[in-house]
Amino acid sequence: SSAASDVYKRQASGFTDECKLLFETPIIRDLLVLPSISERDLLLPEGDIYRPDRVIEAENSTILIDFKGGFPQEKHKNQLSNYENILQEMGYSNVKKYLLYTRNQLLVSA
């Protein structure tokens, strides 16, 4: 229907605007343009699968970024700490963790 199409167009436009704002924020843009491993499954020996949004292998550190559309919550930090432990078990060192809240372009060190 036309009404549903209009809602979809507004949602898509809002998402596009959010993306543009992210790339207009210098520190966020700098992180997002680095070569990364994005949305790759991490398979643990016991069969559990985890999928961090973005892992960047920097010169002296590993940068872990998880994207969120809502508002900051403690469970988001807990999720990143879990990813950090997994990456350390895989041999990645000096893991720096960030939560990127796309709705308000908020980058939080976790």
Protein described:
The N and C termini lie far apart (43 Å). β6 and β7 (106-109) form a beta hairpin. With 110 residues, the chain is α+β, with helices and mostly antiparallel strands. The radius of gyration is 16 Å and the shape is globular. Helix content is 42%, strand content 25%. It has 3 helices and 7 strands; from the N terminus they run ααβββββαββ. Strands 1-4-5-6-7 form a 5-stranded mixed sheet, with helices on one face. The protein has helices at residues 2-24, 26-32, 74-89, and strands spanning 37-38, 42-43, 49-50, 54-57, 62-68, 95-101, 106-109.
Task: Fill in the keyword field for this structure.
110 residues; alpha+beta; 5-stranded mixed β-sheet; two-stranded antiparallel ribbon; 3 helices; 42% helix
What's the short story on this structure?
The chain has 110 residues and is of the alpha+beta class.
Question: Which series of helices and strands comes N to C?
Answer: HHEEEEEHEE
Question: Strand arrangement, largest sheet?
Answer: 1-4-5-6-7
Mean pLDDT: 80
Strand content: 25-35%
- Could you tell me how far the N terminus lies from the C terminus, measured between alpha carbons in angstroms? 43 Å
Tell me the total number of β-strands: 7
Shape: globular
Number of helices: 3
Largest sheet: 5 strands, mixed
Low-confidence stretches: none
Nearest-angstrom radius of gyration? 16 Å
